[in-house]
Design goal:
Layout (H helix, E strand, L loop, with lengths): L7 E4 L2 E4 L2 E2 H4 L7 E5 H16 L5 E6 L6 H9 L3 E4 L2 H10 L6 E3 L6 H10 L3 E4 L2 H14 L3 E8 L20 E2 L3 H10 L3 E7 L10 H21 L5 E3 L28 H15 L4 E4 L3 H4 L3 E16 L5 E10 L8 H4 L6 E3 L9 E6 L18 E3 L8 E5 L19 E6 L2 E6 L21
Parallel strand pairs: 4-20, 5-6, 5-13, 6-7, 7-8, 8-9, 9-10, 9-11, 11-12, 12-13, 15-17
Antiparallel strand pairs: 1-2, 2-3, 4-14, 14-15, 14-19, 16-19, 17-18, 20-21
Helix pairs in contact: 2-9, 3-4, 5-6, 7-8, 8-9
């Protein structure tokens, strides 16, 4: 398996996931459903761990559970031998439930509530990554109340720009982190406080960063700040957390001139990101422990979404006078942004393939839409016209698979239009098993109250 391959292999038009024929599965499993690969998950973990630890042995990999916090997934991450990063009290609860020890968990998050901080300190997690000076004071107050020291690291916006989707850029004036100008004051406060233990620095740059340059600049800026903090506060920091952001290829980079702002292509392998980060660290501060928090890199390529074409139509393109210019073929599949929210939220591109139609001659352009009563529920195309190049015979009943969907799919599913959330299956050692059941109509009203008609005496 190559570094940029997903789990989907097409042989004579038959889509295979770890040797399992998806066309056989859809004979007994209703669409849409996600299909995960335990093998690919393990491979992703090993690739990132090996890339970093052979360059800087004191590296800890912490899976960013916000990418996929399904219990089956978390148990496999735990079994792979790495740790976990959480972003809420709910993610903390799930990580502990999955079997992670408290000392394997760090807690990020931009708006930690007092009960979340209290629970994190009560169970004794490894560290709290603090997002503001206000939050630092909140953590200090809770730690004093519980009389339990809080290990903290400030998340600092080190003002390094990254060319990625605006919703995935986390520095250079974004919503996350302490402003660089306030960082030393924050560490000075923490170092002087009886119940705070400042141990590290956190500088996550963003997600789907397709060049290594921002990491080099980010490491230099972070290490400059470490030196300034240690000198000003008379402390020694133990670790530097650089977050994740390592990209997943959604479009091939081969043969293309890749603009750094084209965040769907990933021309560099994980080894090159490790070399950029660890090379800088080894040169300047080899004594620091390195923490990294990959999420999308571990989860995305571990799953496909299996959908079915439920409708087809032709729409005509006309000029201002009503004259016919062209026609567009449309197909509608049974999963939209209720199942893959990022396709609409971020105009995100997911590769697609139509199963069972090998070598049908020249492909044809199709507009591909989801089923929701929303004009925005249309998948991003392969070209600027918004069309996907699919086999010309694609029609109702065909199976369409979207790949690289293992991250932020399950986490962001909604019951929009009262469409039940999709089931999840996994291929594990050649066996397919359901790891999350599909939602039922009854599930969708399980939390509603006060609607039942009153019965007279």
């Amino acid at each position: 398996m190559s570094a940029d391959a997903g789990i989907l292999e097409v042989v004579d038009g038959r889509p295979l996931v770890d040797g399992t024929d998806v066309l056989d599965l859809v004979q007994r499993i209703p669409t849409p459903f996600f299909l995960y690969s335990a093998r690919r998950l393990r491979w992703n973990v090993e690739s990132v761990r090996n890339a970093f630890t052979r360059r800087h042995i004191d590296t800890d990999v912490l899976y960013a559970s916000k990418a996929c916090s399904m219990m089956w997934f978390l148990r496999h991450v735990l079994a792979s031998g790495i740790d976990v990063e959480v972003n809420s009290g709910g993610e903390l609860w799930k990580a502990l439930k999955a079997g992670f020890r408290p000392d394997q968990i760090v807690f990020n998050g931009a708006a930690k509530a007092v009960p979340e901080v209290r629970e994190a300190l009560r169970v004794g997690i490894r560290a709290l990554m603090v997002d503001s000076l206000f939050e630092l004071e909140r953590v200090a107050a809770v730690a004093a109340e519980l009389r339990k020291p809080a290990v903290v690291a400030l998340r600092v916006d080190i003002d390094v720009p990254t060319q990625t989707h605006p919703g995935m850029a986390t520095t250079h004036g974004g919503k996350f982190g302490v402003d660089l100008a306030q960082a030393v004051d924050g560490y000075r406060f923490a170092a002087a406080h009886e119940w705070l233990e400042p141990r590290g620095l956190h500088v996550h740059l963003g997600s789907q960063i397709t060049t290594t340059d921002p990491y080099v600049r980010g490491m230099e800026a972070a290490l400059d700040l470490v030196a300034e903090v240690e000198s000003a506060c008379d402390i020694t920091l133990e670790f530097l957390d650089t977050g994740g952001g390592f990209p997943v290829p959604f479009k091939p980079a081969e043969g293309a001139v890749v603009d750094p702002g084209d965040y769907f292509r990933a021309p560099f392998a994980i080894d090159e990101y490790a070399a950029a980060i660890c090379g800088t660290l080894e040169r300047r501060r080899p004594d620091l422990r390195l923490l990294i928090e990959p999420g999308r890199f571990i989860a995305a390529s571990a799953a496909v979404l299996v959908t079915r074409v439920e409708n087809e139509k032709v729409k005509y393109v006309r000029d201002a006078r009503g004259g016919l210019l062209d026609e567009e073929r449309w197909i509608t599949v049974d999963a939209g942004y209720n199942t893959l929210l990022e396709h609409c939220l971020y105009d995100w591109y997911y590769p697609s393939v139509v199963a069972g139609r090998p070598d049908e001659g020249a492909p044809a352009p199709f507009r591909v839409a989801g089923p929701l009563c929303d004009a925005g529920d249309v998948f991003v195309g392969d070209d600027e016209a918004g069309c996907r190049s699919l086999p010309s015979g694609t029609t109702v009943g065909d199976i369409v698979l979207f790949s690289q969907v293992g991250a932020y799919g399950l986490e962001m599913m909604t019951p929009c239009n009262c469409r039940p959330r999709a089931a999840v299956y996994a291929v594990e050692d050649g066996v397919v098993r359901r790891v999350r059941r599909e939602e039922t109509y009854a599930d969708m009203i399980a939390h509603d109250e006060g609607w039942e008609p009153r019965r007279s005496g």
